[in-house]
Amino acid sequence: MSEAPGWAGSTIGVLVMAYGSAAGPYDVERYYTDIRGGRRPSPEHLEDLKARYAAIGNRFPLLETTRRQAEGLERELNAATAGPRYRVYLGMKHSPPFIADAVEEMRSDGIDLGIGLVLAPHWSGMSVETYIERVETALADGGPEFMYVRQWYWHPRFVEFLASRVFDALEKLPRGDRDKAAVIFSAHSLPTRALPDGTLRCKACDRCPERCQYVAQLQRTADLVAAKLGLEDYLIAWQSAGRTNDPWWGPSVVEMIRDLAATGHRAVVVCPAGFVSDHLETLYDLDIEARRTAEEAGIRFERTEMPNDDPAFIGALSALIRQHLSYEPASSS
Ligand code: FEC
User: Which of 129, 141, 272, 309 is the most exposed place for a label (fewest CB within 10 A)?
Assistant: First the structure.
């Protein structure tokens, strides 16, 4: 497979981007303020967030996991003897190393071609596009030519990987419960707004080429994984809604678990398909909150293991980057 014609002799810079996390309990206020676009959180909200981190043992694994993913990706991309060389950079949205710093590093390393990959498979104007905007702002001072992988919810190797994780989680259930189990595919909720016709839309819809791609893309991931496994009882739901005054996209995972229990299910497997690492949203929102909801409702709970730096997942990311460079060398989509 020939990649990025015209760039064969150069080093391609891959900018891997993720959400970011606090560096420790002392850094939670700075981090929360950054997430809120510079507005400091109320003391109640800050205490609530600190308490959630404390409940998971004050762990902040996202940066380290993303670093391992980036290192693994660089190794995997460079494993091929022919073709261009790759250098992988790391840029976070809400904590150091920030995206702008990574772009600056690429510029000073003399990288000619950059490719941006956000570690979130489903596109939304409120998620993936906000990373790209940060890159574009940083590029205003000059820098590599850039292209972006905006969405990869469909990638066969990612789908295959998720299917194996769902299979493993189902296998952990006792046989009798497995036969009455439902699988919930979840992603981060987004704030919504009401349209004049009464329907709800993600707040980002004005920026979507088509409406609610985010919802349709999660559904597509779920359908593809379900088809691989022959699953019939599966749904999508939304998790980790923020503590803001807006309504957020639903139904939530917690609501869905209660509904499933009420309709005779004996177990639920949650596959957080919108995330690829362990962090607060999996370790607290699912492993503590959603699990507690299931237990209170009298049904079993399993969560699929996150991709983190599993070699099969890193291989899927590497295939994605190579394909993007081969088929769309001049595209920015
Ligand atoms: O472990 C960690 O420290 C980081 C976990 C973490 C991930 C993550 C991913 C996404 N978020 C998305 C959207 C929003 C919107 C708001 C918002 C707020 C928070 C807060 C925390 C937080 N998010 Fe997050 N998100 C993570 C953590 N997120 C903490 C603030 C406390 C709270 O309200 O619970 C609302 C912003 C505002 O207030 O104006 C919107 C989306 C993703 C998935 C895509 C991605 O990874 O970029 C979408 C991981």
Answer: 141
**Which residue's C-alpha comes closest to atom 36 of ligand 1?**
36
Q: Which residues pair with 13 in a beta bridge?
A: 87, 114
The residues pairing with 101 across neighbouring beta strands, listed in sequence order, are none
Residue 209's pLDDT band, with cuts at 50, 70 and 90, is: low
Q: Which atom of ligand 1 is the closest one to the Cα of 274?
A: 43
Alpha helices per DSSP H over 172-287: 175-178, 213-229, 253-262, 280-283
CA of 46 to the centre of ligand 1 (A): 14
CA of 54 to the centre of ligand 1 (A): 17
Residue nearest to atom 4 of ligand 1 (CA): 21
Confirm if 93 and 19 have CB atoms less than 8 A apart.
yes
Q: Is 0.85 surpassed by the pTM of this model?
A: yes
Contact residues for 79 (Cβ-Cβ < 8 A; gap 6+): none
Kind of pairing between the strands at 300-303 and 267-271: parallel
The verdict on the CB of residue 236 being under 6 Å from ligand 1 is no
pLDDT for res 311 = 98
Mean pLDDT computed over every residue of the chain: 93
Distance (Å) from CA 19 to ligand 1 centroid: 7
Classified as helix, coil or strand, 98 is strand
Which tens digits make up the pLDDT trace of 30-62? 999 999 999 999 999 999 999 999 999 999 999
- Determine whether the shortest distance from the Cβ of 60 to ligand 1 is under 6 A: yes
Specify the DSSP class assigned to residue 289: I
